[in-house]
Design brief:
- The complex is a heterodimer.
- By secondary structure, chain A is α/β, with parallel strands linked by helices.
- Helices cover 28% and strands 28% of the residues of chain A.
- In chain A, strands 9-8-7-10-6-1-4-5-11 form a nine-stranded mixed sheet, with helices on both faces. In chain A, strands 14-13-15-16-17 form a five-stranded parallel sheet. A two-stranded antiparallel sheet of chain A has the order 2-3.
- The longest helix of chain A has 21 residues.
- Chain B is an alpha/beta fold.
- In chain B, the strands form three sheets. In chain B, strands 11-10-9-12-8-1-6-7-13 form a nine-stranded mixed sheet, with helices on both faces. In chain B, strands 2-5 form a two-stranded antiparallel ribbon. In chain B, strands 3-4 form a two-stranded antiparallel ribbon.
- In chain B, helix 2 runs antiparallel to helix 5 and helix 3 crosses helix 4.
- The mean pLDDT of chain B is 93.
- Classes of the chains: A alpha/beta, B alpha/beta.
- Chains A and B meet through helix 4, strand 7, strand 8, strand 9 and strand 12 of A and helix 3, helix 4, strand 9, strand 10 and strand 11 of B.
- Strand 12 of chain A pairs antiparallel with strand 11 of chain B.
């Protein structure tokens, strides 16, 4: 028997997230083109449910309740479990976001399902996911009737519907369980660096920088480009080498400059998701197997602490040459 | 307060890992150095900060894995944990997050922990599951990616901020007992003090064999580990360091990225 496929849509400030449309592509690959059923939760979902039904052609289950307004683990998982048919084995697909990875394991436990997270590829029943910052891939085969999957943002293209007929929309009201946790609100964090957003060139530091003193090399390299800014991976900010305002990636900023130079960055997906839309990517890393080389256009296997001074030195000669001719 | 911090031992760097055809998993070379998962260091530090703030708090630390994992539990004791538990599981192959969480939940179920804390993920398998699975198995509220904690003894709750996409935070209040997975950057993990190092050297760890705990059914298996498909469209610039720098500058110049 074919398993039913459900996917959990996410919206952010009233808009369906791009990851939701990527999930639809994943679900289609999973089923050989059969459309999944989309579940969307919130306080008032009518517009989003309509958008989903029209853009994807999928049938949409819209579950509403006041306590689904902001994400809450238990409220969301109870609401989802309440509408899944009890005995049909199914795939439940979520995006690997702060909502998706929070929710997936809880749903899996309640369904006695395998839970496979941050999946990047599917072939038959084999789900592939990265290990050790993308250095290796593991091929996982679920062995339970129902399966819960989170899909890595950016791993699949967003689905563009070819069907002209919109899916059906079913509106459901969730009952209010006793909640052991209460979501109180969303806070904006005030350390955004507007330089990053406007920069045409970003030179970014990763753990390979090694120590705080070496951050000056990153600054010097950035200085040879006009309209440039300095970025950083999460671990550089966690180490206190640069402020969080420089952080690029899932929990930092998303950028798409003309040129991105990743220095000593391993290429963990949490970072890559924030910079992969850059028009030109240069990676400098001493490890030839670093995952960053799979997204870079120009790959340089060198230790940044020796290479950056050479590059700056060559730049001086280079600009002198051009000023003469 | 009684706190359990779950820590994982991971290889220090991917460089010393190889693919093992026999186990279908990663094999560790003699040179492989093991240490505590960095994400778990933040969880342990947060527990120790709570202990400093609330008298009569005890911090237990637990790890699942083979013999070598004892050194990571000792590291946790050196940092200031009061008590170490080692669930001895000899397997070196793939062990699913569900299997690990089931062992931890079976151990913790009747121990009366107010908080169970762990890192948001492990550096090696990057699954982001174990904490949430423990919470679901024990039917406790859970918050992931926690970047701030504040205990409210007056109503037995804990207020946390979760880090979510776009640099924003979601504030959540959880009833205690609760499970938290901790985001890096929440604190600065400490170095062990000399007195704790001396204590940890002689302190016995509670060792429990995984086969003595209830067995969880297998939910998935790992078919194998491999190198990623090479999807690089990029050019590896070759030559001496100087040649590489020159070629790169030339390429950037041709694309008008350099004035």
């Amino acid at each position: 028997m074919k398993k039913d496929i459900y996917l959990i849509a996410e919206s952010d400030q009233g808009c369906i997230t791009p990851e939701t449309y990527e999930l639809i592509t994943f679900a289609e690959e999973l089923s050989g083109g059969r459309l999944p059923t989309v579940i969307i939760l919130g306080r008032n979902n009518e517009t989003q449910a309509k958008e989903l039904a029209e853009k994807t052609g999928c049938n949409v289950l819209s579950v509403t309740s006041d306590h689904l307004n902001l994400y809450n683990t238990q409220a969301y998982s109870d609401a989802i479990l309440a509408i899944l048919p009890k005995d049909n084995p199914s795939w439940i697909c979520l995006a690997h976001t702060s909502t998706g990875y929070d929710l997936a394991p809880r749903i899996a436990v309640k369904l006695n399902a395998a839970c496979i997270t941050s999946v990047e590829k599917i072939q038959g029943n084999i789900l592939s996911r990265a290990l050790c910052q993308g250095r290796f891939m593991a091929d996982i085969i679920p062995e339970t009737p129902s399966i819960v999957v989170t899909v890595l943002p950016g791993a699949f293209p967003a689905s563009v519907s070819e069907s002209n007929s919109p899916g059906s929309i079913q509106m459901l009201q969730a009952s209010v369980p006793h909640l052991k946790s209460k979501t109180l609100g969303i806070k904006e964090v005030e350390h955004r660096d507007s330089n990053l957003k406007d920069a045409e060139v970003i030179v970014a530091a990763g753990r390979g920088v090694g120590k705080k003193e070496n951050v000056s090399l990153i600054n010097e390299l950035a200085a040879i480009f006009p309209r440039s800014a300095v970025g950083a991976s999460r671990s550089v900010c966690d180490s206190g080498w640069l402020e969080y305002s420089h952080q690029i990636g899932t929990t930092g900023q998303t950028v798409s400059p003309k040129l991105y130079i990743a220095c000593g960055i391993s290429g963990a997906i949490q970072h890559v998701s924030g910079m992969k839309k850059s028009q030109n990517i240069v990676a400098v890393n001493s490890d030839p197997n670093a995952a960053i080389f799979r997204v870079a256009h120009y790959c340089i296997v060198e230790d940044l602490t020796t290479f950056i001074p050479i590059m700056i030195d060559e730049f001086k000669g280079f600009s002198l040459m051009r000023s003469l001719f | 307060m009684k706190i359990l911090v779950c820590v994982k031992q991971v290889p220090d760097s991917g460089d010393t890992l190889a693919l093992d055809e026999r186990t279908g998993w990663l094999s560790y070379k003699p040179l492989t150095v093991f240490r505590m998962n960095k994400f778990d260091e933040f969880a342990l530090e947060e527990a120790l900060l709570i202990k400093e703030h609330y008298v009569r708090t005890v911090v237990h630390t637990l790890s699942v894995g083979p013999e070598r994992v004892g050194s990571t539990i000792r590291r946790a004791l050196e940092m200031g944990a009061d008590y170490g538990i080692h669930i001895l599981d000899p397997s070196e192959g793939y062990i699913s997050p569900f299997a690990v969480a089931s062992l931890i939940a079976a151990y913790a179920r009747d121990k009366g922990y107010d908080l169970i804390m762990t890192g948001v993920m492990a550096e090696d398998d990057m699954a982001c599951q174990t904490g949430q699975l423990i919470a679901a198995l024990l039917d406790k509220p859970c918050a992931t990616s926690v970047i701030k904690t504040q205990i409210r003894p007056e109503d037995s709750t804990i207020m946390v901020d979760r880090e979510i996409e776009g640099g924003r935070r979601l504030s959540v209040r959880l009833e205690i007992p609760a499970v938290l997975t901790i985001q890096p950057g929440i604190n600065t993990p400490r170095y062990p003090s000399l007195s704790n190092v001396m204590r940890a050297r002689i302190q016995k760890q509670e060792v429990m064999r995984s086969e003595d705990l209830p067995l969880s059914e297998t939910r998935e298996r790992c078919k194998g580990v491999r190198l990623p498909d090479s999807t690089s469209l990029g050019i590896f610039i070759e030559g001496s360091s100087r040649e590489k720098a020159r070629k790169l500058l030339q390429a950037l110049h041709e694309k008008s990225l350099l004035l």
